[in-house]
Amino acid sequence: MGGWSAERDVSLSSGKACARALREKGYEVREIDVQRDLSALLAQLTPKPDVVFNALHGKGGEDGAIQGVLEILDIPYTHSDPLASALAMNKQKAKEVLHPMGVPCAEGALMKIEDIQKGAEPFKPPYVVKPNTEGSSVGVYIVRAGDNKPPLGLDKWSYGPYALVERYIPGRELSVAVMGTKEQKAKALTVTEIKTALDFYNYEAKYANGGSVHVIPAPIDAEVFAEAMRIAAFAHEKLGCTGVTRSDFRYNDNEPGVSGLYYLETNTQPGMTPTSLVPEQAAHMGMTFGDLVEWLVENAAVHT
Length: 304
Description:
The protein is an alpha+beta fold.
């Protein structure tokens, strides 16, 4: 848990919650706050544990890096393998895999952040500018007609030379958790609608007290509900994910049928506190938080 990404604090919360739940289940647990020091990490992994529970989020922990280290050490670990982790973490690459298979995605492309800062616009506003390889809605901006050029905040961009720019999809925020391994077919749990009084479901909305409200099951048309479940399970399988994932969507309910549903991304290391979206959905389906983390441990694997 921990790590050095922009999601360090979220990871520490996830890790502590999972460690506590696993101890209550009778497991012997050692907590490792990962720093950017490989020799220190190797020392903390000696003697080898039976399983590593990966509660890291963001760069270094969700992008295949830590997974590669654990593969070399031949230590089983939770969640997805290096390839699936790296692919899902790269939002544009994941869409390039899934869109040709029929998954409806928000139109977008990678752009140099310096071009955006100079006023280049890929679409007429509104559009979304966000890091291509971050999570937790870190560094996400909605650019609207009449905004400053560059929009406030983008002059302080610190997420690399490129940004993912997508056409803004008005409407509702939906999320679907999926459980599945190489041997067990991916199963979507349910659909959550996330409501917030803030501008959009950003980092503050996710983690500040009262920042958002989760409605389970989402009060949407049954056809759209089923399609979100289908796409989330499909993305989990086609990206090669294992363990637990969470796929996020935008839904414009002014469009007919399922035509307003758009896939955004799949998270291979979703938040794992008892009030996070995935544990909430598991609880809705009758699975306690302890049962969820135990399932992840018992289905941990070395993938290569």
